[in-house]
């Protein structure tokens, strides 16, 4: 039902948002993918890999869902300079 669907998406986002260093979380593609945006100053590349595994394991332990859910951790840093 619609209520269970919305609840599942909210639970997916909540599980990832509880982790340290997470800025934003989006459950997309009908809950088959979770995109996690992290703070690049707090999470380095190696920690991003560990974080994605940790979130995936928490999802497996806490939720029931059909199929698979992909957890994608995005760590982005930008350098911008203006030439005058």
Condensed summary:
This protein is an alpha+beta fold and 84 residues long. It is built from 2 helices and 3 strands; from the N terminus they run αββαβ.
Oligomer: single chain
**Care to count the β-strands?**
3
Question: Radius of gyration in whole Å, from Cα?
Answer: 15 Å
| Uncertain parts | none
- Based on Cα principal axes, name the global outline: elongated
Mean pLDDT, to the nearest integer, reads 92
Order of helices and strands: HEEHE
Strand content: 15-25%
What's the N-to-C terminus distance? 57 Å
Structural commentary:
With 84 residues, the chain is of the alpha+beta class. The protein contains two helices and three strands, in the order αββαβ. Strands 1-2-3 form a three-stranded mixed sheet, covered by helices on one side. The longest helix has 18 residues, at 45-62.
What topology does this entry show?
Elements: H1 2-17, E1 22-28, E2 33-38, H2 45-62, E3 70-75
Task: Identify the notable features of this structure and list them briefly.
2 helices; 3-stranded mixed beta sheet; 23% strand; alpha+beta; 84 residues; elongated; 40% helix
